[in-house]
Amino acid sequence: MRPSTLRALKRAAELTRQNRLTEAVLIAEPVILTADSYEGDEILRWIADHVTAFTGETPNDQKENP
User: Fold this and answer.
1) What is the top-level taxon of the source organism (predicted)?
2) What are phi and psi of 23, to 5 degrees?
3) Which of 55, 38, 56, 51 is nearest to 5 (CA)?
4) Which of the four pLDDT bands, split at 50, 70 and 90, describes residue 36?
5) Cβ-defined contacts of 31-39 (< 8 Å, 24+)
6) Per the confidence metrics, is the pTM higher than 0.70?
């Protein structure tokens, strides 16, 4: 993944944690839409592996559903 793509994803995650979703989308969307198929796969993997970067939760924070 290009360094600029990674920076955009990290910034989008930071903004999402601050409840600034509109700004996060404005930063991440162009990067995601212009990615080729290889980088798109890397982006999907990065997001899946770093979901807590967007939610701000840790595995201990997550509660089980009854």
Assistant:
1) Bacteria
2) -65, -40
3) 38
4) very high
5) 31/4, 31/5, 35/5, 39/1, 39/2, 39/5
6) yes
